[in-house]
Amino acid sequence: MIYEDPTYWNNEVAYYIERTHKLTQDKPCITIQIPFDRLGLDENMNQIVLSDFALREWVDHIEALNEGIYNRSRSDKENGAFYCFRPTNVLMQRNASFVEVISGKWYLCIMITVQLPFKDNNKAMRMLCKMLLKEVEKFIAKFDLIKLNAAFELTKKQNMIREWLKSSGYCAFIGNGSILPRNKDNSGPLEDALPFTSPEDVEVEICGMRGMGIKHGVTVITGGGYSGKSTLLDALNSGIYNHIKGDGREFVITDQSAMEISAEEGRSIKNINITPFIKWIPHNSAELFSTDYASGSTSQAANIMEAINYGCKLLLIDEDRSATNFMIQDNKMRSLIKREPITPFTERVKELHEAVGVSSILVIGGSSEFLAVADQIILMDNFVPKNVTEEAKNLCELEIPRERIPHTKWEIERNITTDHFSSYP
Q1: CB 4 within 8 A of CB 14
Q2: Mind listing the pLDDT tens digit for each residue in 40-71?
Q3: Phi-psi region of 357 (alpha: psi -120 to 50; beta: other; left: phi over 0)
Q4: CA spacing 20 to 30 A to 359: which of 44, 66, 92, 315?
Q5: Are strands 252-254 and 170-175 parallel, antiparallel or unpaired?
Q6: For strand 314-318 and strand 359-363, is the pairing parallel, antiparallel, or unpaired?
Q7: Could you read off the pLDDT of 230-271 as tens digits, one per residue?
Q8: Is residue 410 predicted with pLDDT exceeding 90?
Q9: 3-class DSSP state for residue 96?
Q10: What is the percent of the chain with per-residue pLDDT over 90, rounded to a whole number?
Q11: What beta strand segments (E) does 120-275 contain?
């Protein structure tokens, strides 16, 4: 008899097997369906947190499976291997792990892919019918409900802060003690990094957490090179998502509509009205602008207009990733250039907030043009933030003479060594 249902059962756990593609029949996809009662789970719990937590716990078991069959002299196709999606530190809904109700019963489902060993049916059977089943039983036995409840409580607190932001005059919050710099592979906090501490005059308390609040309007983050200003903006950009415990950015919470805006020279643009920033374009229409290869300024203008159209209420902009002629134009250049189609962002950033409720957080280190239009100015000094709004506003009213920089040395003294070099590819 031929059974068409490709589901196999072991101790109430279902293994649903399907092919990933008609050309890769040796690499099936398996959905492991574990009943809630075997894990001691409640049907009313947050499904996204549960699915995310389970996937992270399962990664260790996948590694254990692969360690049991690893053979460095053979490729995965010859040797066989188990694969699953490895999540980042961001908490979000994924299709690699989810909750499903089957015949009135609740299941936690985890999807994996198995590379079956080439021409070794015995090993393939052992991988699917013994090793995988045994590891799933270990996963069930070690499932930590205390750790899961801690993840629920963290997410609950993060969501409470998000709800507070929606009803307040703030668009972002950075909790004291957050570790903003990332490690070398961007997988977590930088070891021995300085914890974030809010300036006292902009510190707020939300749901028992104290930290720096960023109000709606125009906020400028400034500072010298390597002072941490771009790191702060990157943290705010990732703050649209909740983060897991240990990431360092658990309480960096940003308006979820926020978008990072940059110049994308070479991008395609179709029928976008960019007249707020580009008044006219030779041989093209600025009201219905289209191009297959945008310039830096037109691409950044289009990115902002698309973000506003999508419902974005907070723009995150780093001058290092922006088109200079789009961002600023000082008085002397305006006097020199008589025919200029670009309206710089300095002229529109305040209007964006007042007219359509779109706030901006800008990282600026090279020009004072934005200081005059900013509502709040934060100076980063060796990763320590300071509120310098009043001082910066006073400087805007002064004409400060430019300091003459002394000449430097241009000769290059360089020793080339063979350390860590190999001629082999």
Answers
A1: no
A2: 999 999 999 999 999 999 999 999 999 999 88
A3: left
A4: 92
A5: antiparallel
A6: parallel
A7: 999 999 999 999 999 999 999 999 999 999 999 999 999 999
A8: no
A9: coil
A10: 75
A11: 170-175, 203-206, 209-215, 218-223, 242-243, 252-254, 259-261, 269-272
Nearest Cα residue to 386 out of 373, 375, 377: 377
Q: Cα separation of 304 and 345, whole Å?
A: 10
Q: Would strands 90-91 and 97-102 be described as parallel, antiparallel, or unpaired? A: unpaired
Type of residue found at 242? N
d(CA 262, CA 301): 9
Q: Which residue is listed with tokens 């937590």? A: 53
Do residues 301 and 320 make contact, with C-beta atoms less than 8 angstroms apart? no
According to the model, what pLDDT value does residue 368 have?
86
SS3 for 233-268 is HHHHHHCCCEECCCCCCCCEEECCCCEEECCCCCCC
pLDDT at 1 over 50: no
Question: Could you tell me the two tokens for 348?
Answer: 């529109």
Find tokens 């010859």 and name the residue. 78
Find tokens 């909790």 and name the residue. 175
Q: Could you tell me if 359 and 365 are in contact, meaning their C-beta atoms sit under 8 angstroms apart?
A: no
The answer to whether residues 211 and 251 touch, using CB atoms and an 8 Å cutoff, is: yes
3 state SS of 378: strand
Crossing angle of helices 132-142/47-69, nearest 10°? Answer: 130
Q: Which two tokens stand for residue 139?
A: 């996963």
Q: pLDDT value at position 2?
A: 47
Report the SS3 class of residue 342: strand
